[in-house]
Amino acid sequence: MNLDSLYQEVILDHYKNPLNKKLIPNPIAQVTHLNTSCGDEIILNLHLNGDLVEHITWEGIGCSISQASTSVMSDLLTGKQINEAMSILESFVEVIQSKGKLNGDEEIIGDGVAFAGVSKFPARVKCALIGWMAFKDALSQGLAKK
Amino acid sequence: MSGLLDVTTIKRDFPIFNRTIRDGQRLIYLDSGATSHKPKIVLDAERDFYENHNSAVHRGAHQLAEEATELFEEARLEVARFLNSDGSEIVFTKNATESLNLLAYSFSNSSKNSRFHLNPGDRIVVTEMEHHANLIPWQQLAARTGAELTWLPVTTDGRLDLSSIDSIINAKTKIVAITHQSNVLGTINPIKEIVAAARNVGALFILDACQSVPHFKVDVKDLDIDFLAFSGHKAVGPTGVGTLWGRAELLNEMEPFLTGGSMIESVTMSSATFAEAPQRFEAGVPNMAQAVGLGAAIRYLNGIGMENIHNHEVALTKYALDKLQSIPGLKIIGPTEMKNRGAVFSFTMENIHPHDLGQALDQNGIAVRTGHHCAWPLMRVLNVPATTRASLYFYNDYSDIDALISGIYEAKEFFTAPRTKERK
Q1: Distance between the two ends of chain A, CA-based, in angstroms?
Q2: Is residue B2 domain-resident?
Q3: Do B376 and A127 count as a contact with CB atoms less than 8 A apart?
Q4: Does residue B210 carry a catalytic annotation?
Q5: Exactly one of B162, B374, B392, B403 is catalytic; which is it?
Q6: Where is the Aminotransferase class V domain (chain B) (predicted)?
Q7: Residue B306: per-residue pLDDT
Q8: Helix, strand, coil distribution of chain B in percent, nearest 5
Q9: How far apart are CA B148 and CA A39, in angstroms?
Q10: CB atoms < 10 A from the CB of B234, how many?
């Protein structure tokens, strides 16, 4: 195991140039998720348009894994139907919780496959999931308001 | 080059240093502030207790019960001598967190006319550099009683700001609870000066000694304090055993925290009276093998000598401070001068998040802590979301610091090197 296989280029690239990292105001739901073990924080704004995920925008501080994963998530799920977004999320979570057993399908989780190596490091699973869990939380709050 | 102690020989006492980390690398353990490793002699003491003397202490008319009680009480005396106190003043708890909660809950169980009773308007004073273990019990006690919680601030160089100590520790102050050495900053606080301020207003003084007792001689009489808490596992002892030291006359005035078996004097169906301290605070069958293990740990530390441990760590501290500060982009979070400073180094690296740095170091077999170190308010004051922390003990030497330094350089290279590959 070396650093390259954990920190793939795509992760470092998203970390340095995160996507959608600027909150669009007036969301249907805003959530703040904390990683209580390290103090990392993600604030996520969700905009829905009918059954469509219109915008996922966020702010936050954290390690490269948490920041890059949130960036990938926001890029991948924006513009998707809600049920499609949830199914991608479930596929990603399955890979991250697989303890190194799953590589992930790039057709489904896109750049998310770069995080497969994270699943071998139990202490980093939460980093990889924090943005995705924030989205899931925002979506359920958003749907409750509809 | 090594420190003043013969670390190669010392490491042979610790079985964990026989294993390797991440594909055959040497373990470079720089996380003793979280928990220390255990010498074989401590593990043997625990095993010997279970294999040869196991029995519930303070009960039973048989030989095993006699032997178990003797070993348990001998461990208590070992801890008592270590702190320059008396066995009747040593309460075994689960850990320092429980010791501090024991005090906070006992105080809130106290009757209205007791010296431990807090009223609205009374004051509890802590510091901004407290570990959550010596903050939240007091926050909660304040919430339960209506007392006010306030604190001594921290300066930008990681020392306590005592300029307003007389207005902060004022006539309303009933409790002053302060850490001896910060688990984040390494700062060793001027306890005697703060004790004097507490004495002036008749407040109780409680010392969180988790990061001091394992590292240098702590004498409760010399410090003139009222209570002290530490955890066995940070002092080469087992997990599951901690100590509350308290002045005997105070302990015997205090209400119990946990109630049940072996802490009583006499019981009827509707009421009970309680045993003298320390039994009053040791309800139920205690962590006996662990207490015996702690006794062995203290004998081991005494064998090496607390003065030698301290001197060794002072040498490592000087070496580490010089080396760390020579790394471009590295900022020490805590005092950078040697005076009143322990071998704990929190730092940030420009453009590398602590979690990523910790991961990179781990790939080289180097164990550090990353995050907020259970001192979230302090991190807010210092305006850092998280740090990387290296905390040393007497089984570390200069080569461990060298490994840390080259690991940091490697991580710096990895995370800050220019990258060319385009995103798809």
Answers
A1: 47
A2: no
A3: no
A4: no
A5: B374
A6: 28-404
A7: 97
A8: 40, 20, 40
A9: 27
A10: 26
Can you state the angle between helices B306-325 and B288-304, rounded to 10 degrees? 80
Q: Which of B275, B302, B329 corresponds to the end of one domain?
A: B302
Is B112 strand, coil or helix?
coil
H or E element, residue B293: helix B288-304
Last residue of a domain, one of B267, B283, B302: B302
Are residue B84 and residue B106 in the same domain, yes or no? Answer: yes
Shared-domain flag, residues B205 and B322: no
* The token pair that represents A100 in the structure block: 């190194």
pLDDT at residue A4, as a whole number:
85
DSSP string for B294-337: HHHHHHHHHHH-HHHHHHHHHHHHHHHHHHHHTSTTEEESS--S
Residues of B in contact with A64 (CB under 8 A): 353, 356, 415
Domain CATH number, residue B310? 3.90.1150.10
CA pair distance B401, B398, nearest whole angstrom: 5
**Helical spans, DSSP H, in A1-146:** 3-6, 9-16, 64-77, 82-96, 106-109, 122-145
List the structure tokens of B17: 């240093």
Mean per-residue pLDDT of chain A: 94
Do B249 and B335 lie in one domain? The reply is no
* β-strand pairing of B264-267 with B272-274: antiparallel
* Structure tokens belonging to residue B277: 């301290």
Question: Is B214 inside any structural domain?
Answer: yes
B421 lies in some domain = no
Task: Split chain B (424 residues) into runs of 10 and give each run's mean pLDDT.
Answer: 82 98 96 98 98 93 96 98 98 98 97 96 98 98 98 96 98 98 98 98 98 98 98 98 98 97 95 96 97 98 98 97 97 96 97 94 96 90 93 98 98 83 47
For residues B281 and B315, membership in a common domain is answered with no
Domain with A96 in it: what CATH number? 3.90.1010.10
CATH of the domain at B232: 3.40.640.10
The answer to whether residue A41 neighbours chain B at the CB level (below 8 Å) is: yes
Q: Which domain holds residue A17?
A: 3-145
Predicted confidence at residue B2, as pLDDT, reads 47
* Cβ contact B236:B39 at 8 Å: yes
Using the 8-state DSSP alphabet, how is residue B236 labeled?
T
Q: Number of H helices and number of E strands within chain B? A: 14, 17
Question: ipTM of the assembly?
Answer: 0.89
A63–chain B Cβ distance below 8 A for any pair? yes
Domain that holds residue B218: 42-302
Of the candidates B79, B141, B53, the one whose C-alpha atom is nearest the C-alpha of residue B278 is B79
Percent helix, strand, coil in chain A (nearest 5)?
55, 20, 25
Interchain CB contact of B419 with A (< 8 Å): yes
CB B196 within 8 A of CB B18: no
